[in-house]
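Lab notebook, bench 4. The sequencing result for the construct came back, and we need a structural model before the next group meeting so we can plan mutations. Quick request posted to the team channel:

Model the 3D structure of this chain.
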Amino acid sequence: MRDILQQIKWAYQRVMRNYDDRVFWGFDSEFLTYLKPIRQFCNQELNRSYMEWQENKNRKEIFLKTLVLLDNLELDKKNSTPKFWEHFGKNIEFFWD
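Done. Here's the predicted structure in token form:
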């Protein structure tokens, strides 16, 4: 009976919002799969010679801060997860190769 009620609830949510609450289940674990490639990308970009140019100073600082936030995330420091994703979201245009 409980399963039927949940199915009705999710169907209603899909009708009203085009998605239901289940899309958030495991969403955080999906993001965790991206942490290693983000770290590799930052290290790769920091090792490129053009990163020394003055015009890329902002980009270099963003990658360095990303690595610090990733370290904090791995050490499970307080509020590190929202800080990392906020930083990543604000600077996402720098993460395209």
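The chain has five helices and no strands.
Will bring this to the meeting.
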